[in-house]
Amino acid sequence: MSESSAPRRRTAEHPEGGAGAGRWVHPLSAGLGAPPDVIGGKAHGLVLLHRLGLPVPPGFVIGTDACRAFLRDGRFPPGLGTELATAVAGLEAATGRVFGGPERPLVVSVRSGGGVSMPGMMSTVLNVGLTGAATAGLAAETADPEFALDSRLRFLSGFAAALAGPGGRALTVAGADREIHGLREAREAERTAGTGTAGKTGETREIQAIREGATRSTSTGPGLGPVGLVAAAHRLESAIREGMGAPVPDDAPGQLEAAVAAVFSSWGTPRARTYRELHGIPHGSGTAVTVQAMVFGNRDGRSGSGVAFSRDPNTGEEVPFGEVLFGGQGEDVVSGGCPTRPLRELADREPTVWAGLLEALRRIEEHERDACYVEFTFEAGGLWLLQTRPGRFTGAAAVRVAVDLAEAGRIGRDEAVLRVSPHQLSRVRTPRIVVDGAEPVLVRGLGAAPGVATGRVATTADRAVRMAAWGPVILVRPETSPLDLHGLAAAEGVVTARGGPSGHAAVVARSMGKPAVVGAAGLTVDVAAACVRAGGHIVPEGTVIALDGTGGEVVVGEPRVVTPAADARLHRLLAWADGFAGRPPGGGPADGTWAGRLAAAQAVLRRG
């Protein structure tokens, strides 16, 4: 068995990876002091992880100023190409690998990172540098052709998705989504025999050699096997070539430059612009691009990816919360397209990874004095952290976290009052559906964003926007993607058949304060027939349904709804607010609403 393909841990000889800072490119290291508006929120979080001594893949970041120059001029600014080459050389030295090389190839991820987090709205390309030669080299190094080819196919998939233009039009890669979804399903079934693709246009000699060698192998394990993966990759390359009018670059620097340009361009997509408008983010700031050595969550049975909160984002309870996908990469988790497992399963399957993750969450929360969110990957039992930021919480959870941290002495009562927004306070009492048989339960899923929403079924984002002009709608989808953002914005709530509580639909719904139910097994969305099916029931589009984003129930009709009384933590927070505002507890001559009492205290505190 060869050594892991994961990056080296930092050593005295290779302390951080990358090279010295240039005009456009900065090394990711504990010494990088640039603010998020310069290096992006993702890189800023990675710098924090470095300072805490936590395991982070080496890399570098291209600043937001390069993006602004690219969007203004339509090309890389002068010197960026040279700085990229220098930074890659530093990354090669740090990892002991060669970018695009036939032996010990260096493979990188290319991720966006605005100054303010915009989850899923911009492009990511993983496995950049897997040329034909590098794929063959990875297969030889790991003695696992299926892993190498699976990684190559994932690169092509991400590359195709990233090449959607600013108008949001996907390339003519009609087969791309079908290929990826088909592979997901195939990996859950037994390996099926494939047919050769030798001699087809676009297949490199190296890929052909892997395929021919794999044909003679009988130890490729479950899934499509290398032969089927080569065939799928060939079809996807052909679709990309048709859409681009040129083949996928088969040189690693060319792949990297194309990926960086695609991430820059994704700042201008309609979904990204819509998200910024919804959240008050300036359009002119641009995105940074973070480049890091790949950690392969799809490496083997002891690898995977996941997301974790230090506290439950729905309740604020001090328990780790999240999900994990064994044998998958990070994009599989956040897309909602792959079945994930509860985070706690890590404790049984990979106790060392679990222990390391708990320690990381504890140290980040202790340092930041706030609940946190992390994205992580583990390869062959080794944990790596890929991102951290503050957790996004619902109203009740925000109150609980602020009060609990204050009572634990980690923040002051004044800071606790300032941390809860009036908008969050308006959603602190979470309504619940009363399931008493009066209205039939259509399906049950995972409550991903608390609250109750009622409206007419819409099965596409575009239909949700049109139907919302005539009354409330509920967006019901197999899964959501960033392309559905306008529909999520128009809907009162969202239901998905797939995905977990940390996937795209859940994260965006929570950020918008909209109830969501995800992972509703047994739910089928038939867009062509304009209906949804579950439990033997057919529900036409336009039918009124209700969802409970706490309990996960979806019911037909308008059920009875109850709203619980405010809990003790809310009363404590409001009492603190009244004290800072100089008001008698629970009232006074000014606005006596909860939001009014909080706003009065915050105004006093901000005046100093």
UniProtKB/TrEMBL annotation:
Alphabetized InterPro entries for the sequence: ATP_grasp_subdomain_1, PEP-util_enz_mobile_dom, PEP_util_AS, Phosphohistidine_dom_sf, PPDK_AMP/ATP-bd, Pyruvate_phosphate_dikinase
This protein's record includes keyword Electron transport? no
- At the top level of its lineage, which domain of life is listed? Bacteria
The EC class name is transferase
Q: Name one Pfam family in it.
A: PPDK_N
Q: Which residues lie within the region annotated Disordered? A: 1-24
Task: Say yes or no: keyword Transferase present.
Answer: yes
Q: Which residues form the Pyruvate phosphate dikinase AMP/ATP-binding domain?
A: 74-337
Keywords of this entry: Kinase, Pyruvate, Transferase
This chain's protein is named: Pyruvate phosphate dikinase
Source organism per entry reads: Streptomyces clavuligerus
Print the organism lineage: Bacteria, Bacillati, Actinomycetota, Actinomycetes, Kitasatosporales
